[in-house]
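Feature request, filed as a ticket because there's no other form

It would be nice if the structure record came with a short human-readable summary line next to the tokens. Right now we just get the raw output. Example of a typical job, pasted below so the devs can see what we mean:
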Amino acid sequence: METRHKLYGTLVTLTGASLWGLNAVVSKYLMGRGIDTMWMVNFRMITSGLVLLLFALAKNPHGIFDIWKDRKSVIRLLIISVFAFGLCQPTYYLSIDYSNAGIASAIQQTAPVFVLIYVILKERRGPSAAELGALILVTAGSFLIATHGDFGALAVHPLALLFGLISALMCALYITLPSELIKRYGTFETVGWGLFVGGCVIAPFCRLWNFPTQWDASLILGMAFIILPGAACAFGLFLYGTSIVGPVRGGVYNLFEPVTALLASVLFLGQSFHPAEIGGTAAILAGIAILTVAKEKKTIQQIKKTEG
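Raw output as currently delivered:
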């Protein structure tokens, strides 16, 4: 029974990660159909934030506004809304716009490396062997994607690389900043408000009022996908699955997102990838997997020392 439960959790987690990958591909399709990137991102943030808040309302009708009753929580939420969401989402989609879903997703996966660098500097120590190996793999993978092995020239649009790295850095803030609020108020409440408030903040810059006039069934379905399955459902499934399989396996399974984005880009959008891009993506994913497992082993050792 335990094995079946773990298998169920694995399938749910992989489904959530895969939906995130497909979300990037559908977004690229919408960009190709003429939907303005910044308008699409802004609309998605506000609507998916509202959907998550509806989930939170159904789960806990009396606690959805609790986060606004504490001054320190409000300040932290506003910081998260502006930086972790308000900058992470637009820069990620701009990276997709200037490259493709697979490359942008792979670059964003470097976010844990920024967290690692911050921890190393904060603790004033050198990296462990596993951490150093992960850093080397991720750095090598990023260079392969950016240069295709020719270190004298960029093989991808420089803005794709720039926006991708900014997105990864902001994603690192998303990994570290909301944890206290999530523990206190809940995941749907924190992320829902973060997306909604962040969307409202950037709305004037994205000209949200310029609603596209040329719509057909495929565009409507595409927008519906990136709001519901690609955002709200993906997030809920991934979190639920991770609660079953644990954070370590959840972190490793999350690497399925760029793999799905790459494969779906080839199958549905007819895009081709240079061997160096595939190799670079594999190196990044391997590095993040090593870093995730090493972090869990370190945590287990610390617990054993404490108990001993």
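Something like this underneath would help us a lot:
The radius of gyration is 19 Å.
The first helix runs from residue 2 to 32.
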